[in-house]
Design goal:
Helices cover 34% and strands 24% of the residues. The protein is α+β, with helices and mostly antiparallel strands. Strand 8 (151-160) and strand 9 (166-175) form a beta hairpin. The longest helix has 20 residues, at 122-141. The radius of gyration is 18 Å and the shape is globular.
Length: 235
């Protein structure tokens, strides 16, 4: 959660904000909220305009691009952004997370989505939203979605692990894009993906930089990924 005073100065910056933006609380407390806005929006005082609108109307919609500490731009991302900005944690379906993330980038027509109805708990839902947004942003800038012919296939299913328990499997596959080459360094986004789904015990994340297209495979015990759903269901 990000908290500012009426002047737009950041007074609180929680771990969710640290995860998404890369700055620590000590680095951000006392800073102006415009610090994570793009240079273009800072020039037009977009942060100030949104603050004034929020004070006048009770809320202001944030549907713009922001900047992380490493300089990478990303857009406000639906479910994960709700958690960051309001502190509210909700369970969510996998399909809801994927579709809302892809819709923010305007690339829905070139992303094929398939999978059963699966509800994730709040922590896993936030993790998946962040990972999907990172994958979608990279695909639109460097990968399959950066060229007209590129396609992305996103699918998930429930399999059975060696102990006979339900295993959630999620795959992101890019095709018909530029030839893929492995990165020379592990940036913030790569590390975020490699953490996997909320750090659940037994969860794994694998990135395959095949020349024909990036593939990301996430797996995790379904019971753990759904473990905090009960805390978010209405009484």
């Amino acid at each position: 959660m990000i908290v500012t005073d009426r002047a737009g100065t950041i007074t609180d910056w929680n771990t969710g904000a640290e995860t998404i933006f890369g700055w620590t609380a000590d680095e951000m407390r006392g800073s102006d909220a415009s610090r994570f806005y793009t240079p273009e929006d800072r020039e037009t005082d977009r942060a100030g305009l949104e603050m004034r609108r929020s004070l006048a109307e009770g809320s202001a919609v944030d549907e713009r691009w922001h900047i992380r500490k490493d300089g990478v731009r990303f857009s406000a991302l639906g479910k994960a952004h709700d958690v960051l900005m309001t502190g509210r944690k909700d369970a969510a379906s996998v399909e809801e997370i994927v579709r809302s993330t892809v819709a923010l980038l305007g690339e829905g027509a070139r992303v094929a989505i398939a999978g059963p109805q699966v509800e994730l708990g709040a922590s896993a839902a936030l993790s998946l939203a962040l990972i999907c947004h990172e994958l979608a942003t990279n695909a639109s800038k460097y990968g399959a979605l950066s060229v007209d012919a590129g396609q992305v296939t996103v699918q998930w299913q429930i399999e059975t692990d060696a102990a006979g328990k339900p295993l959630f499997v999620f795959e992101w596959q890019e095709s018909d894009g530029p030839v893929v080459t492995p990165p020379t360094r592990r940036g913030f986004g790569t590390r975020l993906i490699e953490v996997g789904l909320s750090g659940a015990f037994g969860a794994e994340a694998r990135l395959d930089y095949a020349p024909s297209g990036l593939r990301c495979r996430l797996t995790g015990p379904l019971s753990e990924l759904q473990s905090d759903r009960a805390n978010n269901e209405p009484e």
